[in-house]
What does this fold into?
Amino acid sequence: MDILKKKIGIVGGGQLGKMMILEAKRLGFYVAVLDPAADCPSQSICDKLIVSPLDDPSGYIELSKHTDVITYEWELINADALENLEKEGQTVYPSVRSLRKIQNKYIQNSEMQSNNIPVPRFALVSTTEEIREYGKSTNFGYPLMLKTTTGGYDGKGVAPIKTEADIESAFNELGSGVKELMVEEFVGFQKEISVIASRGITGEMVVYPVAENTHTNTILDTTVVPADISDEISNKAAEIANRVMSVFEGVGTFCTEMFLTADGNIFVNEVAPRPHNSGHYTIEGCFANQFENHIRAIVGLPFGDTSLISPTVMVNLIGQSDGTARLLGLEESYKDPNVHVHVYGKSESKTGRKMGHFTVTGNTADDAVKRADKLKQVLRFIGE
Amino acid sequence: MDILKKKIGIVGGGQLGKMMILEAKRLGFYVAVLDPAADCPSQSICDKLIVSPLDDPSGYIELSKHTDVITYEWELINADALENLEKEGQTVYPSVRSLRKIQNKYIQNSEMQSNNIPVPRFALVSTTEEIREYGKSTNFGYPLMLKTTTGGYDGKGVAPIKTEADIESAFNELGSGVKELMVEEFVGFQKEISVIASRGITGEMVVYPVAENTHTNTILDTTVVPADISDEISNKAAEIANRVMSVFEGVGTFCTEMFLTADGNIFVNEVAPRPHNSGHYTIEGCFANQFENHIRAIVGLPFGDTSLISPTVMVNLIGQSDGTARLLGLEESYKDPNVHVHVYGKSESKTGRKMGHFTVTGNTADDAVKRADKLKQVLRFIGE
It folds into this structure.
């Protein structure tokens, strides 16, 4: 089949879906989107929008009717629905097999552990007694992290347990054992880093430069590239991301989030089977961005150059209040000619909601960081 | 008014309109498009498509209802219709005043001449006798170019007159004097160059690097940036483009096409009041591309950095035969990771029709040219 005639379906029409479409449209691809919201960020630029909840199989069936290859911008979706379509011959990239291994955090960690990819120690727990046991054990010890094995993101589905006294409340916060739970060793990290990588249908792979991330209130705040780490650590991180792609048989763009400890050890914190917020810097920062290479992967095209054009800082624009969305400071920020603002097109601002992001490129990371820091006071999404 | 809430209207939904929209959507702008074809390249990514002929005022009135600022991807449009809307308070950028000065090639040249911008010698003619006179004159001499003052593009509306014997046929070819005609001195150029520049509502300006162009059958074939010219010539060309923007009071991105003679003289061949084919290289080649700066200009935002990331070659993908469009060689071409292909989304290929383009970036222009030349044999748009 002529590659350009392949119709692409995307589960999820948020900002990640939107940025995939912007790249797909450069090559003239037809794109259909499945999203619960008629006014999702992708709505105006897709060829067909199917409005249906992401847990309802009927939306997936409808999407399949319009597409040759289905991908997704988000992993908390209906894997059963996708699997049924896959069985009937629908191409899904990344495969449902990959998706399932990643959707469940316990399986995700187990897969990595059994393939010698370093992860924090972890174990399934179903009662407060079991948690208490791990807290007392020399392997784990406090603080430790209690997590739901499925459904978590941006700090949701995670409750830190600093001392034995927190066990009860953390357990209750995460559903009192109704949802499957696991404990994870708390890694006292020095830096949070992430590596975006893309892998093709036949296993070929490209890896992006290592990004250094800062979170605020468990949501990504700032990404700086290149990360301020040694070449040795950088190579190690790239090598881990590379192995992650193989272990999960990823087709498309994935993100591997990692903890770097003071003594130079790396532990994988989480894998996302899709383009990732910490890879948004690639739009201005790299010759071919994470979304372009995602599209190339799923349709079977060779990859574009992932190398860095210039040091780049990405800052998330998070809603600071509720109401009709309004971005302050755009004109002011554009006085710096190397600032690019991305507005996702969500009409409502909510406190903590990802409304957009901006990037600053510079001759050095330090210079870009300084200019980005100033703009954090200027560019603000509010509700009015 | 909140800049991001400005609704943008574009007259023309071809590839230039499409590439404008792709940039406008990064900032979440609403975009309405007026085009005669329901399946125009912009159709799937605009918020509203008004299907109406570009000479019919009713389409413009409808477009105006949906937009705060109207721009255009093409100059051969209904200036009267736009002027009526402008009089009623509709913002139009570039202004109708600018458009009118450029739409008529005789007025365009006259404006430049009276502002000391170098243009070839030219004169209005209405009979074959008058043409014969100019052919004989020491000022003009043969060969000379016969042109319609309006409606020309891509070599259409131009007939070269090599000797007196060609006068009759050239005159008949261009409508036997029914359309307004002019003669223009033939400039024996060494190179064709062009400069893209953007100018804001309050007159601020940015200029892109000089591009060197090669035409085949009067249609742009290849653009190489940087042009292989001295710094002195480059500065002179940029300065001319700068003055062109001021003379025509351009708001938005314009292109100034120029002839460079062997003795280092520059003559302006033509001005386009819009992003231009010879500026497509800016998408991969520059930090902020010509379409992004066009959008920034018309909504009143400061400009992005126009400097070159790396030497870039742009090659047009012209339909080589008629029928359902099919691009050959995409996979093969993407084995080079610094190739980007743009497919406009026209379902029908026609011989000579602009179907897409590709860019090659490299460490040197020579390297990029060599790689691009190889791909000219590989990437081909055919009809089947």
Residues 231-247 of chain A form the longest helix (17 residues). The mean pLDDT of chain A is 96. Residues 49 and 279 of chain A are 25 Å apart (CA to CA). DSSP finds twelve helices and 21 strands in chain A.
